[in-house]
Structures are given as C-alpha cells and as structure tokens.
Design brief:
single chain; alpha+beta; Phenylalanyl-tRNA Synthetase, Chain B, domain 1; Phenylalanyl-tRNA Synthetase, Chain B, domain 3; 2 domains; 10-stranded mixed beta sheet; 3-stranded antiparallel beta sheet; 7 helices
Amino acid sequence: MPTVEFNISELERLLGRRLPRDVEALNEIFAYVKGEVAYMEGEEVNVEVKDSNHPDLWGVEGISRALKGYLGIEEGLKHYRITGRSRTSIEVHETLAEIRPYIACGVVRNVELTGEAIKGLMHLQDKLDLTYGRGRRRTSIGLYNYDLITPPVHYMVSKPEEHAFVPLGFQERLSLREILQKHPKGVEYGHIVEGFKLWPLLKDDEGKILSFPPIINSNDLGKVTEETKNILVEVTGTREETVNDALTIMCTALADRGGEIESVEVHYSYPEERVVETPILNTAKLKLR
C-alpha cells in the first residue's frame, strides 16, 4: 500500500488546526482516510494509506483535503475552478500516436512554495509515477518554471542523437541516448522508450527543451524552487483518462497551496483534428441503488 511522508506541522498548516503528537491519537484521525502511522520521528511522519483507489490521498494536500470534511473544518465537496485560459497551447506531433500519445497540462499561478511544500509535491509526483503511472509507463509527471517558457510548447519526437540538453541534477549536456546511459533516471526508465526509433521530447517555441518524457526534465526549465511562483504541470502517457486524472491531482494539490489554475489547450491531429482543454475539473454524480 502507498505510504505518504510529510512533516506534521505541514499538515497542521494546511488544516488550520493543531494535531496531537501521540501515535495512537493520530491513528484515530488518519483512520478517516484509511491511514495508519507506519513510523514517526520528531515532526516527520510516515502514513500508510490502505486505499489504492484514491491516489488523491497519496500526498499531504489530499490527506488535508479529506480530513477537513471528516473533522468538520469544511463541509461538502470541495470545488476547484479554472480561473482563466493561459496563453499556452501544446502542439502534438502526429508520430506520437504510436509512441506516447497523450499529454495534458495546466498552469498554476501564484503558488506559495516552501522547502517542505516542494518536498511534499515531489513525493506525490513520485508516488503517482510509480504506482498510478505503472513505473512511468502509463503516466509520468513534469513540473516546470512557467516564467521561463515561451509558448506554444511542442510535444514532438526526436532521434536519440538529434537533441541534447542538461538533465535535472547534472551540469553536463547529454544527448537523449547518453541520458539513458549516464543519468540514473535514464538507466531506470530507459526501457520505456528504447524500443522506438523516435523518442518523445518537449520544447518551447524558442527551442528550449523542457524535458525528455517520461525520463527526465531539463535542469534549466524543469527545476522548481522556493522562488518559483508560476508552474506548468505536464503529464504524458498512454491512456488519456489516466493522464487527465494525474494532472487533476497535481493541479489541485498546488491550488491547495494558494495557486490559481489556468487551462491549456492541447492540439491533436489524431485520430482526428481536435482540441482538448486541460485540466478537466468536472465533478460527476454517482447514482446509488
């Protein structure tokens, strides 16, 4: 079952309420989200969430959102809204239909990030990539400093030696093939793309590389810090519904930290010409018998 690691003070900040430091008392609270403290050391807590059907609970933001209802802090379904359309669109190359066909993006502005917030978001991203995304094969997530990007963004293909950039955490410029050979994420996830002659690539309209999905972001545009205020969230994958769901989880987590969500138009040429506006934040009604 997924485990969620966070600082208890961070959960308190999101809830707006003090919490006990006793494990037994915390377990009574986390039971509302089918959670149990796996270990606790100081302010750091690791909660095992015994519900694989709720990936929105795999981060401290989602746990806070659910607990607000159970604890009576907020009542009813929380609604998120699109505050406007961003000036960004995604142009999808037709060749990706046979490689990694789907992409969904959103822009989240005016986010308040601390070191703990970034740590939590990276944890949520990793959990979604590993479990919901089936080890990045079905979905993978990228976060970027939106202020450094010149739209539109091009979701395209590249030969393994055609493009090079500095991958996240490196100082050396590497080709896509070299990334699979030298970067830890390339070694770990390279098998996802190695069987294709052309590999996915994200570039902005000035030719700056955002990432080599689903492998690694660039060290220039794909690094989020405490100074980052506006974020482009991107998800690529092989199932459109799953890609959209992962994007919704990440965008709403950022909205819980004060962000304002703007939509992005994704332009496809397959299976026919169409434009999809993401994220999709519609709620659905379930009829109970």
